[in-house]
Specification:
The chain has about 130 residues and is mostly helical. Helices cover about 65% and strands about 5% of the residues. It has one domain. Helix 1 (about 1-20) crosses helix 2.
């Protein structure tokens, strides 16, 4: 359960970062930013897998670039659902979705399902001596 809240927090950080970096994405208040992060995380958890499933042929043909388009459309849907969170068009939504995806992926790779920070250590084995 702790991991879920941590992933919501990561999505929130990514949304705030996108609003700060990408021109055309505005957050009027911290409450709107929090609501946008929660709505986007819920849409990503519920609707995005279904959209990916139904658009597999497009994803394969475009070598995965269609997934960025789906993420941009979900970000636009989030802006439509949340007052105080606005996006000024398709291109800011596309760049924002790309930035949110990259930041979320990098930060989520470090977090386990239980909410612990994971560090992978690879220790090389000593060489085998063959006589």
């Amino acid at each position: 359960m702790k991991g879920i809240f941590l992933r919501f927090f990561i999505t929130g950080v990514a949304v705030l970062l996108a609003a700060h970096i990408v021109p055309g994405i505005q957050i009027e208040s911290m409450a709107a930013g929090l609501a946008a992060a929660i709505v986007l995380a819920l849409l990503n958890a519920i609707i995005r897998p279904l959209l990916y499933l139904f658009s597999i042929p497009f994803i394969v043909v475009t070598l995965g670039l269609f997934m960025v388009l789906i993420n941009a459309l979900l970000l636009e849907l989030t802006a439509w659902l949340v007052k105080g969170f606005s996006i000024d068009g398709f291109w800011p939504a596309l760049w924002g979705a790309l930035l949110i995806s990259v930041v979320s992926t990098i930060l989520n790779l470090l977090i386990s399902d239980e909410g612990h920070v994971e560090v992978v250590v690879h220790r090389p084995k000593p060489p085998k001596i063959i006589n």
